[in-house]
């Protein structure tokens, strides 16, 4: 059955619905009065699983939805996704199962007997009676070989007061975090999470280990290991340890001492812990993403770079020249759910350990463009990189991506161009004559002489039809003291203004590059007033009270998509 979710005043969509009725046997229509719930559901953003196995995905929801129906929906766009299983209608096939833990406010969906055909886009969703359902997107990747990040068991049990160790296997690059679903995160190598101590150890180039000590009953719940843009959830249950009689056999001499001293006896188990170094990193909260990785500037130096193994880790922790200045590490963020903190780390070294720039580059995470058109991507960098070479790199993996255009080597083909505004600290890359073959993974990058290049990831999707979120012009001009309106076109439900056309589902924000955001419907941004409206597939963003300082790059955020626009504010000509 095809499920179509429409806006009650959208006559255009209603007409499309009538067209669809001619080719579908039955249509289930859900009326949406508002955009989908803001941060009402929290889950993973991307998981990788081996074909033939199964995956359980936890979905945390707000307390007001305890008694609502929960379900799993499959499809790239929310408005056309199809139900796979619901809490009020269990599946009889055994392919899907769903369970709702109302005490923890977490419903879990399990997909069994996975095949590569199950790779795709899914939504954890809550049914809202008389309103628009609330949803949260995640991507499932099913591989014939080893997954990029996986764990042998998704359910583990520990004992109160003791510790638990979980080994993750990985085949991807990226920074590392250990997060509690709906709570905060600990960044590699160690930290505290809900009064438990967390130590993350990179055992070798394929295994990382997460150790939680000082477990409490309240430590029970769902956790996520984050590496690169992937997560893998694990449920930890903490119980009281069953005591056996052997635990309480006490030597006579000790017993006499205890009786005489009237001391209190407590039994405990002591385990040897791995040594950890002094490389603690500050936790950081983020909403939408910036991806950072490390790359050697000189290809000739590749042979000098290797992943740390167990013995290297020991030497690293006790390097005599280690100082606070070396704590500046690359991080990677991913936009997913609610306010999720997803930082990851890949550590390399050559004689000495070298780490580079936190937040060194900021850009979009995902854009959608029509075939035949062009797109300009702004990349904000730190002031220390003003005179460095900037470039665009294409490829899923940072360490193997290929340069497309560089500021010190302009492209002669006209396909890609690059420009560096050193005053604004923004370099822009433009890709022209787009085709569906240009869909893929790209990196805004800065070359670091004698060190690891800094790169931030974004995904480009090129469509034959209307993009899921787009604007007619990426460059606009306004006058000081007045207002400017931008229309975004879209193909989903969300929030924004500056007329952006949108075809995707998700919450709406208007953000300034390198600054803060305003969430739909209105707010203040850098002393300008922002108002967002949504009518018939068009999001309109209005900025009023413009100042010269308002000039710069902005983007509309709708769901997991962004579309950048450059605004230039000038003095109005006198007549």
TrEMBL record:
Cellular component terms (Gene Ontology): plasma membrane
InterPro entries on file: CD300_family_receptors, Ig-like_dom, Ig-like_dom_sf, Ig-like_fold, Ig_sub, Ig_V-set
Molecular function in Gene Ontology: transmembrane signaling receptor activity
Keywords assigned: Membrane, Transmembrane
Chain ranges of the Ig-like domain: 39-141, 359-463
Domain of life of the native organism: Eukaryota
Subcellular compartments: Membrane
Keyword Ubl conjugation: no
One Pfam family hit: V-set
Principal place of residence: membrane
This protein's name: Ig-like domain-containing protein
Native organism: Dissostichus mawsoni (Antarctic cod)
Top-level taxonomy: Eukaryota, Metazoa, Chordata, Craniata, Vertebrata
């Amino acid at each position: 059955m095809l499920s179509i979710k429409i806006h009650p005043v959208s006559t255009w969509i209603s007409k499309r619905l009538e067209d669809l009725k001619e080719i579908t046997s039955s249509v289930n229509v859900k009326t949406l009065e508002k955009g989908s719930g803001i941060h009402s559901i929290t889950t993973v953003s991307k998981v990788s699983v081996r074909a033939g196995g199964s995956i359980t995905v936890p979905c945390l929801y707000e307390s007001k939805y305890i008694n609502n129906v929960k379900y799993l929906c499959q499809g790239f766009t929310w408005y056309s996704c199809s139900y796979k299983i619901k809490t009020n209608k269990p599946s009889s096939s055994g392919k899907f199962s769903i369970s709702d833990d109302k005490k923890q406010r977490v419903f879990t969906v399990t997909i069994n007997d996975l095949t590569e055909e199950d790779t795709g886009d899914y939504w954890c969703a809550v049914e809202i009676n008389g309103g628009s359902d609330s949803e949260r997107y995640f991507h499932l990747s099913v591989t014939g070989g080893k997954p990029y990040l996986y764990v042998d068991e998704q359910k583990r049990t520990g004992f109160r007061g003791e510790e638990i160790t979980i080994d993750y296997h990985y085949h991807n690059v990226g920074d590392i975090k250990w997060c509690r679903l709906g709570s905060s995160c600990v960044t590699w190598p160690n930290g505290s999470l809900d009064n438990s101590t967390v130590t993350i150890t990179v055992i070798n180039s394929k295994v990382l280990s997460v150790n939680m000590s000082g477990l409490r009953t309240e430590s029970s719940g769902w956790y996520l290991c984050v590496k690169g843009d992937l997560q893998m959830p694990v449920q930890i249950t903490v119980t009281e340890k069953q005591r056996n009689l052997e635990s309480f056999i006490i030597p006579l001499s000790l017993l006499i001492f205890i009786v005489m001293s009237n001391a209190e006896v407590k039994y405990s188990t002591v385990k040897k812990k791995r040594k950890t170094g002094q490389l603690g990193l500050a936790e950081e909260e983020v909403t939408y993403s910036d991806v950072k990785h490390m790359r050697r500037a000189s290809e000739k130096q590749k042979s000098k770079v290797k992943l740390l193994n167990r013995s290297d880790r020991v030497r690293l922790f006790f390097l005599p020249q280690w100082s606070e200045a070396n704590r500046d590490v690359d991080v990677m963020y991913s936009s997913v759910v609610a306010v999720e903190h997803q930082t990851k780390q890949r550590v390399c070294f050559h004689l000495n350990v070298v780490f580079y720039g936190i937040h060194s580059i900021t850009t979009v995470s995902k854009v959608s463009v029509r075939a035949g058109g062009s797109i300009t991507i702004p990349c904000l960098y730190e002031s220390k990189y003003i005179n460095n070479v900037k470039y665009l790199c294409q490829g899923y993996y940072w360490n193997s991506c290929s340069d497309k255009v560089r500021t010190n080597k302009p492209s002669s083909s006209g396909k890609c161009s690059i420009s560096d505004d050193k005053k604004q600290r923004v370099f822009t890359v433009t890709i022209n004559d787009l085709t569906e073959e240009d869909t893929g993974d790209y990196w805004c990058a800065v070359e670091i002489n004698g060190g690891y290049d800094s790169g931030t990831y974004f995904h480009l999707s090129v469509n034959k039809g209307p993009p899921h979120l787009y604007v007619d012009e990426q460059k606009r001009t306004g006058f000081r003291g007045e207002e400017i309106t931008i229309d975004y076109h879209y193909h989903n439900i969300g929030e924004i203004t500056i007329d952006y056309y949108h075809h995707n589902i998700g919450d709406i924000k208007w953000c300034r590059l390198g600054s803060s955001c305003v969430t739909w419907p209105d707010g203040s941004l850098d002393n300008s007033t922002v108002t967002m409206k949504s009518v018939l597939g068009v999001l309109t963003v209005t900025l009023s009270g413009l100042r010269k300082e308002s000039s710069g790059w902005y983007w509309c955020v709708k769901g997991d998509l962004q579309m950048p626009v450059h605004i230039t504010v000038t003095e109005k000509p006198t007549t």
